[in-house]
Write a sequence for this structure.
Protein backbone atom coordinates (compact mmCIF):
# COMPACT_ATOMS: atom_id res chain seq x y z
CA UNK A 1 0.00 0.00 0.00
CA UNK A 2 2.91 2.33 0.73
CA UNK A 3 4.13 1.71 -2.81
CA UNK A 4 0.67 2.53 -4.10
CA UNK A 5 0.56 5.83 -2.22
CA UNK A 6 4.01 6.86 -3.46
CA UNK A 7 3.07 5.88 -7.02
CA UNK A 8 -0.18 7.81 -6.75
CA UNK A 9 1.67 10.93 -5.59
CA UNK A 10 4.30 10.62 -8.33
CA UNK A 11 1.60 10.35 -11.00
CA UNK A 12 0.05 13.58 -9.73
CA UNK A 13 3.18 15.61 -10.42
CA UNK A 14 3.01 15.59 -14.25
CA UNK A 15 -0.75 16.16 -13.97
CA UNK A 16 -0.10 19.21 -11.81
CA UNK A 17 2.37 20.53 -14.40
CA UNK A 18 -0.15 19.86 -17.14
CA UNK A 19 -2.78 21.81 -15.21
CA UNK A 20 -0.52 24.86 -15.07
CA UNK A 21 0.22 24.61 -18.82
CA UNK A 22 -3.45 24.25 -19.80
CA UNK A 23 -4.40 27.09 -17.50
CA UNK A 24 -1.69 29.31 -18.96
CA UNK A 25 -2.74 28.52 -22.54
CA UNK A 26 -6.43 29.19 -21.89
CA UNK A 27 -5.75 32.70 -20.63
CA UNK A 28 -3.36 33.29 -23.52
CA UNK A 29 -6.18 32.53 -25.95
CA UNK A 30 -7.66 35.87 -24.93
CA UNK A 31 -7.48 38.38 -27.77
CA UNK A 32 -5.22 41.38 -27.23
CA UNK A 33 -2.82 41.80 -24.36
CA UNK A 34 -3.30 43.15 -20.86
CA UNK A 35 -1.57 46.32 -21.97
CA UNK A 36 -4.41 47.08 -24.40
CA UNK A 37 -6.60 47.74 -21.40
CA UNK A 38 -4.31 50.51 -20.29
CA UNK A 39 -4.82 52.31 -23.59
CA UNK A 40 -5.19 55.94 -22.85
CA UNK A 41 -4.92 58.90 -25.21
CA UNK A 42 -2.11 60.29 -23.05
CA UNK A 43 0.10 57.25 -23.60
CA UNK A 44 1.97 57.06 -26.88
CA UNK A 45 2.46 53.91 -28.91
CA UNK A 46 6.16 53.86 -28.02
CA UNK A 47 5.41 53.97 -24.32
CA UNK A 48 2.95 51.10 -24.71
CA UNK A 49 5.58 49.11 -26.56
CA UNK A 50 8.06 49.83 -23.79
CA UNK A 51 5.57 48.68 -21.17
CA UNK A 52 4.96 45.48 -23.13
CA UNK A 53 8.71 44.87 -23.23
CA UNK A 54 8.97 45.49 -19.47
CA UNK A 55 6.13 43.09 -18.72
CA UNK A 56 7.76 40.45 -20.92
CA UNK A 57 4.78 40.30 -23.27
CA UNK A 58 7.03 40.23 -26.34
CA UNK A 59 8.85 37.13 -25.13
CA UNK A 60 8.08 33.77 -26.71
CA UNK A 61 5.18 31.91 -25.11
CA UNK A 62 7.30 29.28 -23.35
CA UNK A 63 9.40 32.01 -21.73
CA UNK A 64 6.29 33.81 -20.51
CA UNK A 65 5.11 30.51 -19.06
CA UNK A 66 8.42 29.99 -17.24
CA UNK A 67 8.31 33.52 -15.85
CA UNK A 68 4.75 32.97 -14.66
CA UNK A 69 5.67 29.62 -13.09
CA UNK A 70 8.68 31.20 -11.41
CA UNK A 71 6.46 33.82 -9.84
CA UNK A 72 3.91 31.20 -8.92
CA UNK A 73 6.50 29.14 -7.06
CA UNK A 74 7.39 32.20 -5.04
CA UNK A 75 3.73 32.57 -4.11
CA UNK A 76 3.18 35.50 -6.46
CA UNK A 77 -0.11 35.04 -8.28
CA UNK A 78 0.03 38.45 -9.94
CA UNK A 79 -2.09 41.53 -9.46
CA UNK A 80 -5.77 42.02 -10.12
CA UNK A 81 -6.43 44.24 -13.12
CA UNK A 82 -9.52 45.73 -11.52
CA UNK A 83 -8.61 46.34 -7.89
CA UNK A 84 -4.78 46.33 -8.32
CA UNK A 85 -4.44 44.24 -5.17
CA UNK A 86 -2.35 41.06 -5.16
CA UNK A 87 -4.54 38.17 -6.30
CA UNK A 88 -3.38 36.10 -3.31
CA UNK A 89 -4.81 38.76 -0.97
CA UNK A 90 -8.15 38.69 -2.79
CA UNK A 91 -8.29 34.90 -2.59
CA UNK A 92 -7.29 34.95 1.06
CA UNK A 93 -10.23 37.21 1.88
CA UNK A 94 -12.69 35.05 -0.02
CA UNK A 95 -11.67 31.49 0.72
CA UNK A 96 -13.14 31.33 4.23
CA UNK A 97 -16.77 31.99 3.27
CA UNK A 98 -16.55 29.50 0.38
CA UNK A 99 -15.05 26.74 2.51
CA UNK A 100 -17.76 27.32 5.12
CA UNK A 101 -20.48 27.18 2.48
CA UNK A 102 -19.09 24.05 0.82
CA UNK A 103 -18.38 22.26 4.09
CA UNK A 104 -21.87 22.91 5.42
CA UNK A 105 -23.42 21.85 2.10
CA UNK A 106 -21.56 18.54 2.07
CA UNK A 107 -22.59 17.80 5.66
CA UNK A 108 -26.25 18.71 5.08
CA UNK A 109 -26.31 16.89 1.72
CA UNK A 110 -24.96 13.68 3.25
CA UNK A 111 -27.30 13.99 6.25
CA UNK A 112 -30.23 14.09 3.83
CA UNK A 113 -28.91 11.38 1.53
CA UNK A 114 -28.00 8.69 4.09
CA UNK A 115 -31.41 8.19 5.75
CA UNK A 116 -33.26 8.59 2.45
CA UNK A 117 -30.96 6.13 0.73
CA UNK A 118 -31.36 3.59 3.56
CA UNK A 119 -35.16 3.85 3.41
CA UNK A 120 -34.98 3.42 -0.34
CA UNK A 121 -32.76 0.33 -0.10
CA UNK A 122 -34.47 -1.44 2.80
CA UNK A 123 -37.87 -1.01 1.17
CA UNK A 124 -36.73 -1.72 -2.40
CA UNK A 125 -39.49 -1.33 -5.05
CA UNK A 126 -41.94 0.04 -2.49
CA UNK A 127 -43.76 3.37 -2.77
CA UNK A 128 -41.10 4.91 -0.54
CA UNK A 129 -38.35 3.68 -2.83
CA UNK A 130 -40.02 5.26 -5.88
CA UNK A 131 -40.62 8.47 -3.96
CA UNK A 132 -36.96 8.71 -2.91
CA UNK A 133 -35.65 7.80 -6.36
CA UNK A 134 -37.89 10.35 -8.05
CA UNK A 135 -36.91 12.90 -5.41
CA UNK A 136 -33.24 12.27 -6.09
CA UNK A 137 -33.83 12.85 -9.81
CA UNK A 138 -35.58 16.13 -9.00
CA UNK A 139 -32.57 17.16 -6.92
CA UNK A 140 -30.20 16.41 -9.79
CA UNK A 141 -32.37 18.03 -12.45
CA UNK A 142 -33.38 21.31 -10.85
CA UNK A 143 -31.08 24.12 -12.00
CA UNK A 144 -29.45 25.59 -8.89
CA UNK A 145 -30.12 29.14 -10.07
CA UNK A 146 -33.84 28.41 -10.50
CA UNK A 147 -34.01 26.71 -7.11
CA UNK A 148 -32.11 29.60 -5.54
CA UNK A 149 -34.38 32.25 -7.07
CA UNK A 150 -37.46 30.25 -6.12
CA UNK A 151 -36.31 29.96 -2.51
CA UNK A 152 -35.54 33.69 -2.33
CA UNK A 153 -38.99 34.39 -3.75
CA UNK A 154 -40.77 32.18 -1.23
CA UNK A 155 -38.67 32.54 1.91
CA UNK A 156 -37.27 36.05 1.63
CA UNK A 157 -39.57 38.17 -0.51
CA UNK A 158 -43.11 36.79 -0.08
CA UNK A 159 -42.47 35.78 3.53
CA UNK A 160 -39.70 37.73 5.24
CA UNK A 161 -38.32 34.72 7.15
CA UNK A 162 -34.81 34.57 5.82
CA UNK A 163 -32.36 37.04 4.29
CA UNK A 164 -32.21 37.11 0.49
CA UNK A 165 -28.45 37.36 0.31
CA UNK A 166 -25.14 38.46 1.76
CA UNK A 167 -23.27 37.01 4.71
CA UNK A 168 -24.20 39.47 7.46
CA UNK A 169 -27.10 41.84 8.05
CA UNK A 170 -26.12 45.29 6.82
CA UNK A 171 -25.45 47.79 9.56
CA UNK A 172 -24.92 45.16 12.26
CA UNK A 173 -21.84 43.51 13.69
CA UNK A 174 -22.84 40.19 12.22
CA UNK A 175 -21.65 37.32 14.36
CA UNK A 176 -21.94 33.59 14.01
CA UNK A 177 -25.71 33.34 14.50
CA UNK A 178 -26.33 36.00 11.88
CA UNK A 179 -24.00 34.26 9.42
CA UNK A 180 -25.67 30.89 9.99
CA UNK A 181 -28.99 32.57 9.34
CA UNK A 182 -27.64 33.84 6.02
CA UNK A 183 -26.27 30.41 5.18
CA UNK A 184 -29.59 28.55 5.33
CA UNK A 185 -30.77 29.17 1.76
CA UNK A 186 -27.46 28.88 -0.16
CA UNK A 187 -26.47 25.76 1.79
CA UNK A 188 -29.86 24.23 1.07
CA UNK A 189 -29.47 24.91 -2.67
CA UNK A 190 -26.06 23.23 -2.82
CA UNK A 191 -27.06 20.41 -0.45
CA UNK A 192 -30.08 19.46 -2.61
CA UNK A 193 -27.77 18.85 -5.56
CA UNK A 194 -25.42 16.71 -3.48
CA UNK A 195 -28.23 14.77 -1.81
CA UNK A 196 -29.82 14.07 -5.21
CA UNK A 197 -26.71 12.28 -6.36
CA UNK A 198 -25.82 10.62 -3.07
CA UNK A 199 -29.23 9.03 -2.45
CA UNK A 200 -28.59 6.74 -5.40
CA UNK A 201 -25.09 5.90 -4.14
CA UNK A 202 -26.34 5.08 -0.66
CA UNK A 203 -29.17 3.01 -2.08
CA UNK A 204 -26.92 1.01 -4.42
CA UNK A 205 -24.24 0.59 -1.77
CA UNK A 206 -26.76 -0.56 0.87
CA UNK A 207 -28.45 -2.98 -1.54
CA UNK A 208 -25.12 -4.61 -2.25
CA UNK A 209 -24.24 -4.94 1.43
CA UNK A 210 -27.71 -6.15 2.46
CA UNK A 211 -27.27 -9.27 0.36
CA UNK A 212 -24.03 -10.27 2.12
CA UNK A 213 -23.70 -13.40 4.21
CA UNK A 214 -22.55 -11.66 7.37
CA UNK A 215 -25.83 -9.79 7.55
CA UNK A 216 -27.71 -13.07 7.41
CA UNK A 217 -25.49 -14.21 10.27
CA UNK A 218 -26.36 -11.06 12.19
CA UNK A 219 -30.05 -11.69 11.67
CA UNK A 220 -29.65 -15.34 12.60
CA UNK A 221 -28.11 -14.25 15.89
CA UNK A 222 -31.47 -12.63 16.56
CA UNK A 223 -30.42 -9.01 16.21
CA UNK A 224 -33.17 -6.53 15.59
CA UNK A 225 -33.53 -5.40 11.98
CA UNK A 226 -32.80 -1.81 13.03
CA UNK A 227 -29.42 -2.79 14.46
CA UNK A 228 -28.64 -4.96 11.45
CA UNK A 229 -29.35 -2.12 9.04
CA UNK A 230 -27.94 0.80 10.91
CA UNK A 231 -24.97 -0.74 12.61
CA UNK A 232 -23.77 -3.69 10.57
CA UNK A 233 -24.83 -2.72 7.07
CA UNK A 234 -24.50 1.06 7.16
CA UNK A 235 -20.93 1.05 8.45
CA UNK A 236 -19.76 -1.00 5.50
CA UNK A 237 -21.91 0.89 3.05
CA UNK A 238 -20.42 4.19 4.18
CA UNK A 239 -16.89 3.43 2.93
CA UNK A 240 -17.65 4.08 -0.73
CA UNK A 241 -20.06 6.87 0.17
CA UNK A 242 -17.50 8.83 2.13
CA UNK A 243 -14.93 8.57 -0.62
CA UNK A 244 -17.29 9.68 -3.38
CA UNK A 245 -17.93 12.83 -1.40
CA UNK A 246 -14.52 13.88 -2.65
CA UNK A 247 -15.88 13.74 -6.17
CA UNK A 248 -18.33 16.45 -5.21
CA UNK A 249 -15.66 19.11 -4.79
CA UNK A 250 -15.29 20.05 -8.48
CA UNK A 251 -19.06 20.16 -8.88
CA UNK A 252 -19.42 22.21 -5.73
CA UNK A 253 -16.85 24.73 -6.91
CA UNK A 254 -18.82 25.15 -10.14
CA UNK A 255 -22.10 25.31 -8.26
CA UNK A 256 -20.63 27.84 -5.86
CA UNK A 257 -20.11 30.29 -8.72
CA UNK A 258 -23.84 30.43 -9.43
CA UNK A 259 -25.03 30.07 -5.86
CA UNK A 260 -22.69 32.74 -4.52
CA UNK A 261 -23.69 35.02 -7.38
CA UNK A 262 -27.40 34.65 -6.60
CA UNK A 263 -27.04 34.98 -2.84
CA UNK A 264 -24.25 37.58 -3.01
CA UNK A 265 -22.10 35.35 -0.85
CA UNK A 266 -18.66 36.99 -0.64
CA UNK A 267 -16.64 33.90 -1.61
CA UNK A 268 -14.46 32.47 -4.35
CA UNK A 269 -17.45 31.89 -6.65
CA UNK A 270 -18.50 35.51 -6.56
CA UNK A 271 -14.89 36.60 -7.08
CA UNK A 272 -14.75 34.31 -10.12
CA UNK A 273 -17.83 35.94 -11.59
CA UNK A 274 -16.51 39.43 -10.87
CA UNK A 275 -13.15 38.66 -12.48
CA UNK A 276 -14.91 37.24 -15.54
CA UNK A 277 -17.18 40.25 -15.88
CA UNK A 278 -14.28 42.69 -15.65
CA UNK A 279 -11.95 40.51 -17.79
CA UNK A 280 -9.49 40.43 -14.92
CA UNK A 281 -7.27 37.71 -16.40
CA UNK A 282 -4.68 37.32 -13.61
CA UNK A 283 -7.46 36.72 -11.08
CA UNK A 284 -9.31 34.33 -13.40
CA UNK A 285 -6.10 32.41 -14.04
CA UNK A 286 -5.27 32.12 -10.35
CA UNK A 287 -8.80 31.00 -9.42
CA UNK A 288 -8.94 28.42 -12.18
CA UNK A 289 -5.57 27.08 -11.11
CA UNK A 290 -6.55 27.03 -7.45
CA UNK A 291 -9.74 25.12 -8.26
CA UNK A 292 -7.89 22.52 -10.33
CA UNK A 293 -5.22 22.04 -7.67
CA UNK A 294 -7.92 21.63 -5.00
CA UNK A 295 -9.60 18.97 -7.10
CA UNK A 296 -6.35 17.16 -7.81
CA UNK A 297 -5.41 17.23 -4.14
CA UNK A 298 -8.82 16.05 -2.93
CA UNK A 299 -8.79 13.20 -5.46
CA UNK A 300 -5.37 12.19 -4.21
CA UNK A 301 -6.49 12.24 -0.58
CA UNK A 302 -9.68 10.32 -1.39
CA UNK A 303 -7.79 7.64 -3.30
CA UNK A 304 -5.35 7.18 -0.44
CA UNK A 305 -8.15 7.17 2.14
CA UNK A 306 -9.96 4.57 0.09
CA UNK A 307 -6.95 2.29 0.03
CA UNK A 308 -6.63 2.68 3.79
CA UNK A 309 -10.34 2.22 4.51
CA UNK A 310 -10.86 -0.82 2.32
CA UNK A 311 -8.01 -3.33 2.59
CA UNK A 312 -9.75 -5.69 0.17
CA UNK A 313 -8.78 -3.51 -2.76
CA UNK A 314 -5.52 -4.46 -4.44
CA UNK A 315 -3.47 -2.17 -6.61
CA UNK A 316 -0.97 -3.23 -9.17
CA UNK B 1 0.25 -8.50 -34.02
CA UNK B 2 1.16 -6.09 -36.77
CA UNK B 3 3.24 -8.77 -38.52
CA UNK B 4 0.34 -11.04 -39.37
CA UNK B 5 -1.77 -8.43 -41.03
CA UNK B 6 -3.23 -8.64 -44.56
CA UNK B 7 -0.23 -10.26 -46.31
CA UNK B 8 -0.47 -13.68 -44.68
CA UNK B 9 -4.19 -13.74 -44.73
CA UNK B 10 -6.03 -15.94 -47.26
CA UNK B 11 -8.58 -13.91 -49.21
CA UNK B 12 -11.35 -16.39 -48.51
CA UNK B 13 -11.16 -15.73 -44.80
CA UNK B 14 -11.43 -12.02 -45.34
CA UNK B 15 -14.36 -12.53 -47.66
CA UNK B 16 -16.26 -14.89 -45.38
CA UNK B 17 -15.98 -13.35 -41.99
CA UNK B 18 -17.97 -10.17 -42.57
CA UNK B 19 -20.91 -12.04 -44.13
CA UNK B 20 -21.43 -14.49 -41.30
CA UNK B 21 -20.81 -11.71 -38.90
CA UNK B 22 -23.44 -9.48 -40.46
CA UNK B 23 -25.94 -12.31 -40.58
CA UNK B 24 -25.38 -13.29 -37.01
CA UNK B 25 -25.38 -9.74 -35.83
CA UNK B 26 -28.53 -9.00 -37.79
CA UNK B 27 -30.36 -11.84 -36.09
CA UNK B 28 -29.05 -11.14 -32.66
CA UNK B 29 -29.61 -7.41 -32.97
CA UNK B 30 -33.25 -7.81 -33.73
CA UNK B 31 -34.10 -9.84 -30.67
CA UNK B 32 -31.66 -7.85 -28.57
CA UNK B 33 -33.10 -4.48 -29.53
CA UNK B 34 -36.61 -5.77 -29.02
CA UNK B 35 -35.69 -7.00 -25.58
CA UNK B 36 -34.10 -3.66 -24.73
CA UNK B 37 -37.23 -1.85 -25.92
CA UNK B 38 -39.43 -4.10 -23.80
CA UNK B 39 -37.31 -3.50 -20.72
CA UNK B 40 -37.20 0.22 -21.39
CA UNK B 41 -41.00 0.41 -21.70
CA UNK B 42 -41.34 -1.19 -18.27
CA UNK B 43 -39.65 1.87 -16.75
CA UNK B 44 -42.69 4.12 -16.52
CA UNK B 45 -40.87 7.35 -15.73
CA UNK B 46 -38.53 6.80 -18.68
CA UNK B 47 -41.51 6.44 -21.00
CA UNK B 48 -42.99 9.65 -19.62
CA UNK B 49 -39.61 11.31 -20.11
CA UNK B 50 -39.46 10.13 -23.71
CA UNK B 51 -42.94 11.56 -24.29
CA UNK B 52 -41.93 14.92 -22.83
CA UNK B 53 -38.74 15.03 -24.89
CA UNK B 54 -40.77 14.21 -28.01
CA UNK B 55 -43.13 17.11 -27.28
CA UNK B 56 -40.22 19.51 -26.71
CA UNK B 57 -38.59 18.32 -29.94
CA UNK B 58 -41.80 18.91 -31.89
CA UNK B 59 -42.08 22.31 -30.23
CA UNK B 60 -38.56 23.17 -31.39
CA UNK B 61 -39.14 21.97 -34.96
CA UNK B 62 -42.51 23.67 -35.41
CA UNK B 63 -41.68 26.78 -33.37
CA UNK B 64 -42.65 29.23 -36.17
CA UNK B 65 -46.12 27.66 -36.41
CA UNK B 66 -46.69 27.32 -32.69
CA UNK B 67 -45.45 30.68 -31.45
CA UNK B 68 -48.32 33.17 -31.31
CA UNK B 69 -45.96 36.12 -31.90
CA UNK B 70 -42.57 36.91 -33.37
CA UNK B 71 -40.11 36.24 -30.50
CA UNK B 72 -38.09 39.34 -31.41
CA UNK B 73 -40.96 41.70 -32.09
CA UNK B 74 -41.33 44.50 -29.58
CA UNK B 75 -45.01 45.00 -28.82
CA UNK B 76 -46.62 48.03 -27.23
CA UNK B 77 -46.98 46.34 -23.81
CA UNK B 78 -43.89 46.37 -21.57
CA UNK B 79 -43.73 43.98 -18.63
CA UNK B 80 -47.32 43.08 -19.40
CA UNK B 81 -49.04 40.58 -17.14
CA UNK B 82 -50.38 37.38 -18.67
CA UNK B 83 -53.44 38.15 -20.78
CA UNK B 84 -55.53 36.66 -23.59
CA UNK B 85 -53.21 38.28 -26.12
CA UNK B 86 -49.97 37.31 -24.34
CA UNK B 87 -50.58 34.11 -22.39
CA UNK B 88 -47.37 34.39 -20.42
CA UNK B 89 -47.15 38.18 -20.53
CA UNK B 90 -44.41 40.25 -22.10
CA UNK B 91 -40.83 40.88 -21.00
CA UNK B 92 -39.11 44.10 -20.05
CA UNK B 93 -38.81 45.32 -23.62
CA UNK B 94 -42.23 44.09 -24.64
CA UNK B 95 -41.52 40.75 -26.32
CA UNK B 96 -43.99 37.88 -25.99
CA UNK B 97 -42.72 35.48 -23.30
CA UNK B 98 -44.54 32.39 -24.60
CA UNK B 99 -43.10 32.81 -28.09
CA UNK B 100 -39.62 33.25 -26.70
CA UNK B 101 -40.11 30.18 -24.50
CA UNK B 102 -41.05 28.10 -27.56
CA UNK B 103 -38.15 29.34 -29.67
CA UNK B 104 -35.70 28.81 -26.79
CA UNK B 105 -36.34 25.05 -26.90
CA UNK B 106 -34.33 25.08 -30.15
CA UNK B 107 -31.25 26.41 -28.36
CA UNK B 108 -31.43 23.82 -25.59
CA UNK B 109 -31.90 20.88 -27.95
CA UNK B 110 -29.20 21.97 -30.39
CA UNK B 111 -26.69 22.41 -27.56
CA UNK B 112 -27.73 19.11 -25.99
CA UNK B 113 -27.43 17.08 -29.17
CA UNK B 114 -24.47 18.69 -30.97
CA UNK B 115 -22.19 19.24 -27.97
CA UNK B 116 -22.75 15.68 -26.74
CA UNK B 117 -22.22 14.22 -30.23
CA UNK B 118 -18.87 16.02 -30.46
CA UNK B 119 -17.56 14.88 -27.12
CA UNK B 120 -18.84 11.33 -27.41
CA UNK B 121 -16.97 11.04 -30.72
CA UNK B 122 -13.74 12.44 -29.26
CA UNK B 123 -14.03 10.49 -26.01
CA UNK B 124 -14.76 7.21 -27.76
CA UNK B 125 -11.77 7.46 -30.08
CA UNK B 126 -9.39 8.64 -27.36
CA UNK B 127 -10.59 6.03 -24.86
CA UNK B 128 -10.53 3.20 -27.40
CA UNK B 129 -6.98 4.02 -28.46
CA UNK B 130 -5.78 4.24 -24.85
CA UNK B 131 -7.46 1.01 -23.81
CA UNK B 132 -6.51 -1.00 -26.86
CA UNK B 133 -2.86 -0.04 -27.21
CA UNK B 134 -2.07 0.27 -23.50
CA UNK B 135 1.51 0.95 -22.44
CA UNK B 136 2.90 4.46 -22.72
CA UNK B 137 0.13 5.60 -25.10
CA UNK B 138 -2.40 4.74 -22.42
CA UNK B 139 -0.28 6.37 -19.73
CA UNK B 140 0.03 9.65 -21.65
CA UNK B 141 -3.63 9.77 -22.70
CA UNK B 142 -4.89 9.02 -19.22
CA UNK B 143 -2.70 11.70 -17.65
CA UNK B 144 -4.06 14.23 -20.17
CA UNK B 145 -7.53 13.06 -19.18
CA UNK B 146 -6.61 13.59 -15.52
CA UNK B 147 -5.47 17.12 -16.31
CA UNK B 148 -8.76 18.03 -17.95
CA UNK B 149 -10.80 16.34 -15.26
CA UNK B 150 -9.04 18.32 -12.56
CA UNK B 151 -10.59 21.57 -13.69
CA UNK B 152 -14.08 21.94 -12.24
CA UNK B 153 -16.16 21.51 -15.40
CA UNK B 154 -18.42 24.51 -15.00
CA UNK B 155 -15.62 26.80 -13.95
CA UNK B 156 -13.26 26.00 -16.83
CA UNK B 157 -16.13 26.36 -19.31
CA UNK B 158 -17.05 29.71 -17.82
CA UNK B 159 -13.45 30.91 -18.06
CA UNK B 160 -12.95 29.70 -21.65
CA UNK B 161 -16.25 31.12 -22.88
CA UNK B 162 -15.37 34.46 -21.32
CA UNK B 163 -11.99 34.37 -23.08
CA UNK B 164 -13.20 33.29 -26.55
CA UNK B 165 -16.44 35.24 -26.39
CA UNK B 166 -19.93 33.99 -25.66
CA UNK B 167 -22.22 32.85 -28.45
CA UNK B 168 -24.30 29.77 -29.24
CA UNK B 169 -21.55 28.31 -31.44
CA UNK B 170 -18.86 28.89 -28.85
CA UNK B 171 -20.94 27.33 -26.09
CA UNK B 172 -21.49 24.23 -28.23
CA UNK B 173 -17.82 24.01 -29.19
CA UNK B 174 -16.49 24.53 -25.68
CA UNK B 175 -18.90 21.98 -24.21
CA UNK B 176 -18.12 19.56 -27.04
CA UNK B 177 -14.36 19.93 -26.83
CA UNK B 178 -14.19 19.66 -23.03
CA UNK B 179 -16.72 16.97 -22.24
CA UNK B 180 -14.73 14.00 -23.55
CA UNK B 181 -12.55 12.93 -20.56
CA UNK B 182 -15.26 11.04 -18.68
CA UNK B 183 -16.31 9.25 -21.89
CA UNK B 184 -12.68 8.41 -22.62
CA UNK B 185 -12.29 6.81 -19.18
CA UNK B 186 -15.49 4.83 -19.63
CA UNK B 187 -14.60 3.56 -23.11
CA UNK B 188 -11.05 2.75 -22.06
CA UNK B 189 -12.40 0.57 -19.26
CA UNK B 190 -14.74 -1.31 -21.59
CA UNK B 191 -12.06 -1.79 -24.24
CA UNK B 192 -9.57 -3.05 -21.63
CA UNK B 193 -11.91 -5.84 -20.60
CA UNK B 194 -13.27 -6.59 -24.09
CA UNK B 195 -9.85 -6.98 -25.70
CA UNK B 196 -9.16 -9.96 -23.43
CA UNK B 197 -12.12 -11.86 -24.87
CA UNK B 198 -11.72 -14.74 -27.30
CA UNK B 199 -13.55 -13.19 -30.24
CA UNK B 200 -11.09 -10.32 -30.27
CA UNK B 201 -8.11 -12.64 -30.02
CA UNK B 202 -9.60 -14.68 -32.85
CA UNK B 203 -9.95 -11.54 -34.92
CA UNK B 204 -6.33 -10.63 -34.31
CA UNK B 205 -5.21 -14.16 -35.17
CA UNK B 206 -7.19 -13.94 -38.41
CA UNK B 207 -5.18 -10.85 -39.23
CA UNK B 208 -8.02 -8.36 -39.30
CA UNK B 209 -6.64 -4.84 -39.32
CA UNK B 210 -6.38 -3.05 -36.00
CA UNK B 211 -8.84 -0.23 -36.81
CA UNK B 212 -11.41 -2.81 -37.88
CA UNK B 213 -10.98 -4.84 -34.73
CA UNK B 214 -11.23 -1.74 -32.62
CA UNK B 215 -14.14 -0.01 -34.34
CA UNK B 216 -15.89 -2.98 -35.95
CA UNK B 217 -15.56 -5.63 -33.25
CA UNK B 218 -14.77 -4.11 -29.89
CA UNK B 219 -16.67 -0.81 -29.87
CA UNK B 220 -20.08 -2.19 -30.92
CA UNK B 221 -19.92 -4.25 -27.73
CA UNK B 222 -19.10 -1.19 -25.65
CA UNK B 223 -21.97 0.90 -26.96
CA UNK B 224 -24.40 0.43 -24.05
CA UNK B 225 -22.53 2.44 -21.40
CA UNK B 226 -21.66 5.09 -24.01
CA UNK B 227 -25.32 5.50 -24.87
CA UNK B 228 -26.29 5.87 -21.21
CA UNK B 229 -23.46 8.35 -20.66
CA UNK B 230 -24.58 10.34 -23.72
CA UNK B 231 -28.13 10.60 -22.43
CA UNK B 232 -27.09 11.89 -19.02
CA UNK B 233 -24.56 14.09 -20.83
CA UNK B 234 -27.35 15.66 -22.87
CA UNK B 235 -29.21 16.56 -19.68
CA UNK B 236 -25.97 18.04 -18.33
CA UNK B 237 -25.34 20.05 -21.51
CA UNK B 238 -28.85 21.52 -21.46
CA UNK B 239 -28.31 22.49 -17.84
CA UNK B 240 -24.84 23.95 -18.44
CA UNK B 241 -26.04 26.04 -21.38
CA UNK B 242 -28.89 27.37 -19.26
CA UNK B 243 -26.51 28.22 -16.41
CA UNK B 244 -24.03 29.96 -18.73
CA UNK B 245 -26.78 31.94 -20.42
CA UNK B 246 -28.24 32.81 -17.03
CA UNK B 247 -24.89 34.32 -16.02
CA UNK B 248 -24.74 36.22 -19.31
CA UNK B 249 -21.90 34.03 -20.59
CA UNK B 250 -23.84 31.85 -23.00
CA UNK B 251 -26.49 32.60 -25.58
CA UNK B 252 -26.97 36.34 -25.77
CA UNK B 253 -30.08 38.42 -26.31
CA UNK B 254 -31.95 38.98 -28.57
CA UNK B 255 -31.74 35.21 -29.14
CA UNK B 256 -33.94 33.53 -26.55
CA UNK B 257 -32.61 30.77 -24.31
CA UNK B 258 -34.35 29.43 -21.21
CA UNK B 259 -31.26 30.40 -19.23
CA UNK B 260 -31.02 34.00 -20.39
CA UNK B 261 -34.76 34.48 -19.87
CA UNK B 262 -34.04 33.96 -16.17
CA UNK B 263 -31.22 36.51 -16.07
CA UNK B 264 -33.54 39.44 -15.38
CA UNK B 265 -34.88 37.69 -12.29
CA UNK B 266 -31.61 38.52 -10.56
CA UNK B 267 -33.14 41.92 -9.90
CA UNK B 268 -35.36 41.75 -6.86
CA UNK B 269 -38.17 43.77 -8.43
CA UNK B 270 -38.55 41.34 -11.35
CA UNK B 271 -38.27 38.41 -8.96
CA UNK B 272 -41.02 39.78 -6.71
CA UNK B 273 -43.43 41.41 -9.13
CA UNK B 274 -43.12 39.57 -12.44
CA UNK B 275 -43.00 35.83 -11.73
CA UNK B 276 -44.33 35.13 -15.27
CA UNK B 277 -40.95 36.22 -16.58
CA UNK B 278 -38.83 33.71 -14.71
CA UNK B 279 -41.00 30.81 -13.52
CA UNK B 280 -41.91 29.41 -16.99
CA UNK B 281 -38.34 29.19 -18.36
CA UNK B 282 -37.13 27.72 -15.05
CA UNK B 283 -39.85 25.09 -15.19
CA UNK B 284 -38.97 24.31 -18.81
CA UNK B 285 -35.31 23.69 -17.90
CA UNK B 286 -36.32 21.53 -14.95
CA UNK B 287 -38.86 19.52 -16.95
CA UNK B 288 -36.60 18.89 -19.93
CA UNK B 289 -33.54 17.98 -17.83
CA UNK B 290 -35.68 15.72 -15.66
CA UNK B 291 -37.21 14.05 -18.73
CA UNK B 292 -33.79 13.36 -20.26
CA UNK B 293 -32.44 12.05 -16.94
CA UNK B 294 -35.39 9.66 -16.65
CA UNK B 295 -34.71 8.40 -20.18
CA UNK B 296 -31.08 7.86 -19.16
CA UNK B 297 -32.17 5.91 -16.09
CA UNK B 298 -34.51 3.79 -18.20
CA UNK B 299 -31.74 3.07 -20.69
CA UNK B 300 -29.31 2.19 -17.91
CA UNK B 301 -31.75 -0.32 -16.46
CA UNK B 302 -32.66 -1.71 -19.88
CA UNK B 303 -29.05 -2.07 -21.00
CA UNK B 304 -27.66 -3.38 -17.70
CA UNK B 305 -25.97 -6.67 -18.63
CA UNK B 306 -26.27 -7.94 -15.06
CA UNK B 307 -30.05 -7.97 -15.43
CA UNK B 308 -30.04 -9.50 -18.95
CA UNK B 309 -31.80 -12.82 -19.14
Amino acid sequence: MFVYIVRRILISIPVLLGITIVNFLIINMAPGSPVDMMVDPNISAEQLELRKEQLGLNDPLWMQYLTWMGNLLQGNLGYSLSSFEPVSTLIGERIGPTVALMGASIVVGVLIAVPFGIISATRQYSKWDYLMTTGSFLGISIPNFFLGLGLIYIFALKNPWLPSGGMTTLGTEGGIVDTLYHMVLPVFVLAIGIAGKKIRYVRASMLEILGQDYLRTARAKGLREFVVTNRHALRNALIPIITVVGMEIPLLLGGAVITEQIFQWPGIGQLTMQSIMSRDYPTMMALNLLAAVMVLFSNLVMDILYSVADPRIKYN
Amino acid sequence: MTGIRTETQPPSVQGNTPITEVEMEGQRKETYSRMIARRFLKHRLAVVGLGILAIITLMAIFAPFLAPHDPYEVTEVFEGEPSAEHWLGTDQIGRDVLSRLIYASRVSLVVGVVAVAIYIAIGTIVGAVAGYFGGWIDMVIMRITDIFMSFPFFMIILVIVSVVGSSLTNVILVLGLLGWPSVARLVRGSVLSLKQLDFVKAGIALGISTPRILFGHILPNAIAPILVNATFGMAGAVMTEAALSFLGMGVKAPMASWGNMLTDAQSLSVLTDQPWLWVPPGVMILVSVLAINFIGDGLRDALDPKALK
Observations:
- The two ends of chain A are 10 Å apart (CA to CA).
- Chain A touches chain B through 51 residues (CB under 8 Å).
